[in-house]
């Protein structure tokens, strides 16, 4: 394929896949049903990184990163259909976080050493969490722990 697609065209492709006349498989997917796909694509992206490291060929890595992006876009499309958020909200939240967590790039602070950068990153993350209730933090921590167990169990069953 010679055509280069842009992000808006990709969003349109994903929306078409989930539309009334779209793909039956894509239309029936949910956040929950796509979890195995997300895990598989993450594993394949890591494999792509390993292949690139070993061979210097980034072709597989490019393809697998596209598949990870597909998962983000499918999840975002479903969320938009549910009235939760859209991919622009995901992008805006990510940009805000990266700008906030990199004051040495966006706010004129001196970067310092790697350890200073990591310490500042941790300090900023703590400030971000300071407005959250202990219950909210516990819910997040418990959900992350359960997700790790779920991922490990899925990966073990796939070996």
Structure overview:
The chain is mostly helical. It contains eight helices and no strands. It has helices at about 5-15, 25, 35-55, 60-80, 85-100, 105, 115-130, 135-155. Helix 3 packs antiparallel against helix 4 (about 60-80). The model has no long low-confidence stretch (mean pLDDT about 95).
Give a quick precis of the structure.
With 159 residues, the chain is an all-alpha fold. It has 8 helices and no strands.
SSE layout and pairing:
Elements (H helix, E strand, L loop, with lengths): L6 H11 L6 H4 L7 H21 L3 H23 L5 H15 L1 H4 L7 H16 L4 H24 L2
Helix pairs in contact: 3-4
Main traits of this protein?
single chain; 8 helices; 0% strand; mainly alpha; 74% helix; 159 residues
DSSP summary: helix tally:
8
Radius of gyration: 19 Å
Helix content: over 70%
Could you give the order of the helices and strands?
A: HHHHHHHH
Largest sheet: none
User: Can you count the beta strands?
Assistant: 0
On the 0 to 100 scale, the average pLDDT is 95
Low-confidence stretches: none
First-last Cα distance:
34 Å
């Amino acid at each position: 394929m010679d055509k280069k697609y842009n992000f808006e065209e990709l969003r349109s492709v994903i929306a078409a896949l989930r539309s009334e006349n779209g793909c039956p498989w894509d239309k029936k997917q949910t956040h929950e049903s796509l979890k195995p796909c997300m895990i598989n694509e993450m594993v394949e992206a890591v494999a792509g990184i390993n292949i690139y490291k070993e061979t210097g060929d980034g072709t597989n890595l490019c393809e697998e990163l596209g598949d990870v992006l597909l998962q983000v876009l499918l999840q975002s499309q479903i969320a938009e259909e549910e009235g939760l958020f859209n991919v622009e909200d995901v992008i805006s939240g990510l940009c805000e976080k990266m700008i906030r967590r990199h004051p040495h790039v966006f706010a004129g602070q001196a970067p310092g050493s790697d350890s200073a950068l990591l310490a500042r990153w941790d300090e900023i993350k703590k400030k971000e969490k300071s407005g959250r209730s202990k219950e909210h933090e516990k819910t997040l921590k418990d959900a992350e722990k359960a997700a790790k167990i779920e991922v490990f169990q899925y990966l073990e069953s796939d070996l």
